[in-house]
Amino acid sequence: MKFLLFLALLHFVSSLPTVAPKDHFEPWNFFEKVPVEQVIDPDYNIPAVQDAPEIPMEERDSATHAYSVDIAFHTTVSDMDCLRDHGYKSVFVRALNPSGNTYFDREALNTINNAYDAGLGSEIYITPNINSTRSGGDQISLVYQNLHDNGINVRSIWIQVTSPSNWEAPMPVRIEFIHDMIQRAQVLGLAVGIYTSFYDWLEITGGFNNFSSQVFLWYWHVLGIGADGETIPTLEDFRPFGPWKQGTIKQFGQVEKLCGMIVNRNVYGILNQQKSKIIHIPSGNSHIEKEMIRVGGIGL
Ligand SMILES: *[C@@H]1O[C@H](CO)[C@@H](O)[C@H](O)[C@H]1NC(C)=O
Ligand SMILES: *[C@@H]1O[C@H](CO)[C@@H](O)[C@H](O)[C@H]1NC(C)=O
């Protein structure tokens, strides 16, 4: 059990974007300093990880924006209830684990269901792996197929393009890989967005800006990990880069303790996020009504 917690934490850290090169922060160094005995504290009571600030009461039912956290680990319904009670409206769930040849993370199904039960929306993101024998497009299809086969009505997908050291390939190959993912998502009828930053995008793609269709942006901007490194929880600091004239979601905080989890914090504008959709399934000469959990849709 303790070992699993430790693994889960390591796993989380390995999925973090790296901080902009001009910063001196290094998540790896930061965590290496944490003694193992503290890392495996059952309450995740790690002194070095700061508590996430509370969302101010007056912002919890804002008509204009909402808060979310990213999840790439096992969750329970009570974790999701806790997020809701602290004013969060959705979770961003990682559905593709980049380890090895990449695999669909079945914990995503569990978290999507728990979030739904708690009244939270969900978005899907993937951490692709350019080293995999699966093409970019096939990494998208793997996720889509698994969600679809499990009754999830997925509308959009976010692709993580961070941590330049994970993208060891010539730049044109990287761009082609990203392009292949975007195209496949669009063939599958999904809206698609990229989770990156000004620096990540520049380092990984050279600032590529020639997508043939609309791609949304979820950008991260922190000064360092923890509550002290947060930037303003609005998208006002956005400056255009790559193909983007605006952002849709911003990650303003990384590696903070919240509801016994270690999360990153995000903010986004709310237009029409929906949590479910009634679909009609033909069955003989009648129709069965089934409520399907709807995943994705921020910015659509
Ligand atoms: C791909 O392989 C390179 C070289 O071994 C490595 O540095 C990089 O982290 C790998 N990327 C991923 C996503 O595993
Ligand atoms: C941009 O993409 C289009 C097709 O998608 C291509 O025809 C054009 O040459 C590209 N432009 C540049 C500057 O790469």
Automatic annotation (TrEMBL):
Show which residues constitute the signal peptide: 1-15
Q: Which UniProt keywords apply?
A: Signal
One Gene Ontology term of the biological-process aspect is: stress response to copper ion
> What are the protein's GO molecular function terms?
lysozyme activity
**Family named by the database record:** Belongs to the glycosyl hydrolase 25 family.
Matches recorded under PANTHER family? LYSOZYME PROTEIN, LYSOZYME-LIKE PROTEIN 3
Q: What is this protein called?
A: Protein CBR-LYS-3
Native species: Caenorhabditis briggsae
